[in-house]
Amino acid sequence: MGNDINFLRNVSIFEELPERDLEKIAKLGTRKKFSKGNIILMEDEIGSALFIIINGKVKVSRLDETGREAVLSILGPGEVFGEMSLLDGMKRSATCSALTDTEVLIIYRDDFLNLLHKYPQISISLLKELAQRLRKANMQIKSLSLKDAEGRVGCVLILLADELGKMYKGQVIVEEIPTQQDLANMAGTSRETVSRVMTKFEKQGLIKVEGRKLIILEYEKMKQMFK
Ligand code: CMP
Fold it and tell me: Domain Cyclic nucleotide-binding spans what residues (predicted)?
């Protein structure tokens, strides 16, 4: 349980809470591991729990009837998912799967709703988190409806940097970027186009790719260009 408390200190929706309250929350949760590729929750299921990412990355996506995938977001440690259907009582709005080996803390519906009633700070932090998600979704809608493929790939790289990257001396490092197919499914384009555009960005000195590591060399410039 001690570890749970350490990890809860970095969960955005619990950031205002004192130690003794984090201890109580840790006792409510159940830890569970998912291997890379496993589905954690499915679109259209009834929602019964909230998930907090302890470590790993989670892909949020929707599929069409032909099996094509739109990737809505990629979430990392300290972020929550599965809150929407607990709040509005509707079915799961998307499928969430483990993009890497992932460990989560599961808090069941009634316990989560009790927490929201008991600690108004959690509700406010959750609203902040949802507002940030709406901003990102707005950025994606603009990008998908108004930009060409290069602009859409650029926008996806900025979203990834903001979501998963670590800032270091003006550069942003994203360890283990998603596959080019997942990036394509975020940008609404093909894997080949992602590959071509990323090579172009590398030649322009905007990014550097080292294996699965992405270094955004010109973060501010790319933000101006693509947000
Ligand atoms: P819920 O609808 O219960 O189950 C799917 C979850 O995916 C949802 O709650 C949110 O936590 C998450 N989700 C859905 N859409 C997005 C999005 N656009 N960005 C980030 N997370 C999302």
Answer: 13-133
- Dihedral angle over CA of 144, 148, 151, 157, nearest 10: 60
Q: Is the pLDDT of residue 227 over 70?
A: yes
Report the separation in Å between the CA atom of 82 and the middle of ligand 1, taken as the mean of its atom positions: 6
Which of these CATH numbers, 3.40.50.620, 1.10.3660.10, 1.10.10.10, 3.40.50.720, describes 147-226? 1.10.10.10
Q: Which atom of ligand 1 is nearest to the CA of 60?
A: 7
Verify whether ligand 1 is closer than 6 Å to residue 171 (CB atom).
no
Domain 1-143: CATH class, spelled out: mainly beta
pLDDT (tens digit per residue) in 150-164: 999 999 999 999 999
pTM of the complete model: 0.93
- The response to whether residue 62 sits with its C-beta less than 6 Å from ligand 1 reads no
